[in-house]
């Protein structure tokens, strides 16, 4: 104990029974024990130490017996100092039952014994010995000061009967746990410095404790200190306390006025002093320095700022955790979707797993197969349904889109400033066929986007890269191998360079594109554009091209710009500053679009078939009528001639009849 301690022990002296004696411990002295021994009681007796004689008892030969002269007993009847006597055991002190102060400092004693008869002992000093266990004190009920510093103790024990103990010094031992002291309600000073303590606990019940020394331990957590109603001074220097939460209970102590935390990791933090002063307003000293009102005010301001920073940090942490959980949920849903597709595909291809009839009875169906597909696959994400199924995030110059629902964000009203900052667009856990449908929106929404990233987008075929030609501009393309089997193709990069040649790609998957790569791409796939443009019917080609492309196409067909095949065609288009006409023939239709086309083709086929059938039927009827007419025409012609001859036989009658018909028609 290094601060000023005044310990007054009310007891009787030799000359005056009503006069108390006291000893003071001053701050300037070097150690607790030297200060205690500086008292006049020790000084008066120190000159007579050499006169103390030890003899051997006839009955007990294993312990030395203390013998003092009558004169020494009269001069120092209640005190005895035996320091630095090279004692290995406690001697038998016979006839000294009236002793109140006993000093065994700086010896080699290994066990406390032979003092049980000193029932009036008030002060016992066993500093700097080799004691391994506290024992032999059960009868010393009057003991007020027990000094056992610098020994070999590993445990606090056998103090049950020392209920009047006022000072307990156990520093410099090997104690790992505070225990068995809750009954010491009169204890005012407890010194446990330089031990092996890691947690401060089990100190409730020390209602009179005013000073607790825990310097030079391994303490990282403190508990129960707020239950000590009289604690004023707490010394925690040179421990392992790293956060204020580890000593939070100190803030609830109303009596604590002095505390030291220097030498701990927490003392290196910038917020250390401000936080401690803000939460412990009753402190008068911190790390042995007096606290001013200005420091308290500054501490309050600093703590408020720190709390705001922590709240913001906590908010960001929660947002990051929510983002992580949302992405996990999206990934689970994506996995379920892929498993469902694979499962359905396997059912369509593997007919052997279907239930079949054997001898008129149905084959056994496993319970797992009888359950619905959704039930089987949805069980993996049970409990995550409350999370979002998609996520849109702008981080720096990158727009992250997770889940197919995130594509709807492209229809938002983006601010001009935000849209202009987007350089990279990242797609994750979205079917590429769904991405194709919104690629054209990237032109208008994010005019400065030059980098596209694809991860878990189900890119499986080279022709899917044809769809990227719809984008306004691409300088970098990143296709993650995870969830994109097309990356396993050896020539996929060369196909991208060939098909998107008009973009002048700079990087693919982070690797610079060289001129040799472009030449190799043309060698590998150049003929493909020629085949696509030459084999496609003209009407179909015109339907795929825009107005400007149609003019170029007609120009090529007329032979005005075509001298050396497809190469000159592409040079003409390159002068126009866009995609070559031949490459434009290599397009990509999504599965949904193909399905729609199939339905349309079926309808057209049905309509054409019906129309042709009607035409055939009409032609057959006409042919039948024509054949009938050919058969009947000779007879009909004869009858017509005969009727005409008969009618004009009477010329006058025939004329009148004709005139009458003409008159009737005029009327």
Structure description:
By secondary structure, the chain is of the alpha/beta class. Among the domains are: 46 residues; 160 residues, Alpha-Beta Horseshoe (Leucine-rich repeat, LRR (right-handed beta-alpha superhelix)), CATH 3.80.10. 37% of the residues lie in helices and 13% in strands. The protein contains 18 helices and 27 strands. An eleven-stranded mixed sheet has the order 5-7-8-9-10-11-13-15-16-17-18, with helices on one face. A seven-stranded mixed sheet has the order 21-22-23-24-25-26-27, with helices on one face. It has a three-stranded mixed sheet with strand order 3-4-6, with no helix packed on it. A hairpin with a 2-residue loop joins strand 21 and strand 22. Helix 11 crosses helix 12. It is rod-shaped. 28% of the residues are buried.
Total DSSP helices: 18
The proportion of residues in beta strands is: 5-15%
**Any guess at the CATH architecture of the domain at 389-548?**
Alpha-Beta Horseshoe
In total, the number of strands is 27
Helix share of residues? 25-40%
Mean pLDDT: 76
Q: Which topology of the domain at 389-548 does CATH recognise?
A: Leucine-rich repeat, LRR (right-handed beta-alpha superhelix)
Distance between the termini: 148 Å
Q: Pairing-aware structural class of the strands and helices?
A: alpha/beta
The CATH C-level class name of the domain at 389-548: Alpha Beta
Unreliable sequence segments: 1-53, 55-61, 355-386, 560-577
**Strand order of the main beta sheet, please?**
5-7-8-9-10-11-13-15-16-17-18
Query: Major sheet: size, sense and barrel closure?
Result: 11 strands, mixed
Rg, alpha carbons: 53 Å
Spatial shape: rod-shaped
């Amino acid at each position: 104990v290094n601060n000023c301690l005044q310990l007054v022990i009310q007891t009787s002296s030799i000359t005056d029974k009503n006069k108390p004696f006291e000893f003071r411990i001053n701050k300037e002295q070097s150690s607790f024990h030297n200060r205690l021994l500086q008292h006049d009681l020790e000084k008066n007796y120190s000159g007579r130490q050499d006169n103390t004689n030890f003899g051997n008892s006839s009955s007990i030969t294993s312990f030395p017996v203390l013998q003092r002269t009558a004169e020494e007993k009269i001069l120092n009847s209640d005190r005895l100092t035996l320091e630095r006597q090279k004692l290995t055991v406690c001697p038998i002190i016979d006839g000294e039952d009236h002793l109140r102060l006993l000093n065994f400092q700086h010896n080699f004693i290994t066990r406390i014994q032979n003092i049980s008869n000193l029932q009036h002992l008030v002060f016992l000093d066993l500093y700097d010995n080799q004691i391994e266990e506290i024992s032999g004190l059960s009868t010393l009920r009057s003991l007020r000061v027990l000094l056992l510093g610098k020994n070999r103790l590993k445990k606090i024990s056998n103090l049950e009967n020392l209920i009047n103990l006022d000072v307990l010094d156990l520093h410099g031992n090997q104690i790992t746990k505070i225990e068995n002291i809750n009954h010491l309600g009169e204890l005012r000073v407890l010194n446990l410095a330089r031990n092996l303590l890691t947690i401060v606990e089990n100190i409730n019940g020390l209602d009179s404790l005013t000073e607790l020394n825990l310097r030079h331990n391994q303490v990282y957590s403190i508990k129960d200190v707020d239950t000590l109603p009289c604690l004023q001074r707490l010394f925690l220097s040179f421990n392992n306390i790293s956060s204020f939460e580890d000593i939070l209970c100190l803030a609830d102590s109303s009596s604590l006025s002095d505390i030291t935390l220097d030498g701990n990791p927490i003392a290196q933090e910038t917020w250390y002093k401000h936080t401690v002063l803000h939460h412990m307003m009753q402190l008068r000293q911190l790390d042995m320095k007096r606290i001013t009102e200005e420091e308290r005010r500054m501490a309050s301001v600093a703590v408020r700022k720190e709390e705001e920073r922590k709240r913001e940090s906590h908010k960001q942490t929660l947002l990051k955790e929510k983002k992580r959980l949302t992405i996990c949920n999206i990934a689970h849903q994506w996995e379920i979707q892929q498993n469902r597709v694979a499962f359905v595909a396997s059912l369509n291809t593997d007919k052997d797993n279907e239930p079949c009839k054997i001898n008129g009875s149905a084959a056994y169906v496993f319970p797992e197969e009888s359950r619905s597909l959704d039930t089987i696959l949805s069980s993996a994400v049970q409990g995550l349904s409350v999370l979002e199924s998609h996520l849109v995030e702008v981080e720096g110059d990158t727009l992250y889109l997770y889940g197919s629902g995130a594509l709807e964000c492209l229809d938002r009203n983006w601010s001009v400033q935000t849209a202009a900052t987007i350089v990279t667009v990242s797609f994750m856990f979205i079917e590429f066929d769904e991405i194709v449908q919104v690629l054209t929106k990237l032109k208008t929404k994010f005019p400065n986007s030059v980098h596209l990233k694809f991860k878990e987008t189900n890119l499986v075929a080279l022709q899917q890269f044809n769809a990227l030609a719809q984008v306004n501009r691409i300088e970098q393309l990143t296709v993650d191998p995870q969830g994109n089997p097309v990356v396993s193709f050896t020539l996929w990069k060369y196909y991208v360079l060939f098909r998107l040649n008009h973009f002048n790609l700079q990087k693919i998957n982070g690797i610079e594109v060289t001129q040799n790569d472009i030449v190799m791409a043309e060698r590998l796939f150049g003929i493909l554009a020629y085949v696509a443009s030459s084999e496609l019917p003209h009407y179909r080609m015109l339907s795929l091209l825009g107005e400007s492309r149609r003019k170029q196409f007609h120009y090529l067909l007329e032979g005005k710009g075509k001298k050396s095949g497809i190469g000159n065609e592409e040079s003409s288009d390159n002068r126009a500053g866009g995609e070559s006409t031949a490459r434009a023939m290599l397009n990509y239709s999504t599965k949904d679009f193909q399905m729609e086309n199939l339905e349309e083709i079926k309808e057209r086929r049905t309509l054409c078939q019906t129309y042709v059938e009607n035409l055939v039927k009409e032609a057959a009827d006409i042919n039948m009528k024509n054949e009938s007419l050919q058969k009947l025409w000779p007879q009909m012609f004869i009858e017509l001639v005969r009727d005409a001859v008969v009618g004009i036989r009477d010329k006058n009658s025939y004329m009148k009849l004709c005139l009458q018909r003409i008159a009737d028609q005029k009327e």
